[in-house]
Amino acid sequence: MNAAAIQPYALLDDKECEQRIVRAKQALGDRLVILGHHYQRDEVYQHADFTGDSLKLSRQAAGTNAEYIIFCGVHFMAEVADILSRPDQVSILPDMAAGCSMADMADLQHVEKAWQELAEVLDPDQQVTPVTYINSAADLKAFCGEHGGIVCTSTNARHVLDWSFSQRDKVLFFPDQHLGRNTGYTMGIPLEQMVVWDYDKPMGGLTAEAIRQAKIILWKGFCSVHQMFQPEQIDNFKQKYPETLVIAHPESPFEVCQKADFVGSTEFIKKTIADGEPGSRWLVATELNMVNRLHEQHKHEGTHVHFMSPHVCMCSTMFRIDPQHLAWALENLVDGVVVNQVSVPEKTAKLAVTALDRMLEVSP
Ligand code: 13P
Ligand code: SF4
């Protein structure tokens, strides 16, 4: 059977899509599970069978029996779902252009080059645990699997680093320098022992001495959404509302996390605000769709949830998953056609699963 073309769906309004999504979900029943990340827009999020952060959704993907896993998130998430699910299950990303700009800041070629260059100063396979944030391509997870390394998420980064240092003396952490630095600092590692590897420069722009004295070598990657948050935004807001509680995702800059009352994953942010006192006021450093939803959910308790930046910081790639693409993917499935399957080559998946399994074992 041929796939129905996406173009006609672009002309449907959200309401029409909603009805068609609900009908298609009913037709597919338990052959389908929809996983939705917290950054998804409401018109998509409402259709998810399970919502969560990267760790929670990875566990859902590993545990589901559904034939089809539709991931309303970004590409690396659908890859993880494919890796952790059974071979007969199918992982689908409604829009293949939904990537992650941070994940794109590290690729296998540059990481292998870094590993070779580190070998000029030390023996990386004996002395360095490679740790990749889950926001990375499958071949980087495979690299970690092959070199005694591990994957982490924003929830378990501390546990993963504890494990990593129990294996080897140093860590190469990619792609997000902020998550690596924020986590390392809470473990008592001084900033001077966390150096930044600039992948565009020979030897990462570091001296042999700087590499030898480092505990964590941080990849020069960042999230363009969380990079927008600044400590001055906290100061300005608190001038008006001094009682405000500040909560930040650990992809935010170090100075923001230092000023925050709480730091954690999207699921942690959601739970912490839900457990807060009715009538409390929150300033949140994470993606806009999620912050707006939290505000709507809690405003009837008199709770105020504010976005930290004066500028709009939406994750534009998460936003690519719209009701039109979701309806298109689902109605094709009803017709027995799989569109936008995300499939990780077997050899890569085998090595990546080693690194992911290590992560799941040490996760809280
Ligand atoms: P979480 O795992 O905390 O949901 O983070 C994923 C992400 O991409 C945040 O930018
Ligand atoms: Fe990637 Fe940042 Fe979007 Fe998260 S918010 S998916 S890290 S670009």
Describe this structure as you would to a colleague:
By secondary structure, the protein is α/β, with parallel strands linked by helices. The chain has 3 domains: about 5-100 and about 315-345, NadA-like (Rossmann fold); about 105-225, Rossmann fold (3-Layer(aba) Sandwich); about 225-305, 3-Layer(aba) Sandwich (Rossmann fold). It contains 17 helices and 13 strands. The strands form 3 sheets. Strands 6-5-7-9-8 form a 5-stranded parallel beta sheet, with helices on both faces. Helix 2 runs parallel beside helix 16, helix 4 runs parallel beside helix 5 and helix 8 crosses helix 17. The longest helix is centred in the C-terminal third of the chain and has 17 residues, at about 345-360. The mean pLDDT is about 95. The site of iron/sulfur cluster has 12 residues, from loops.
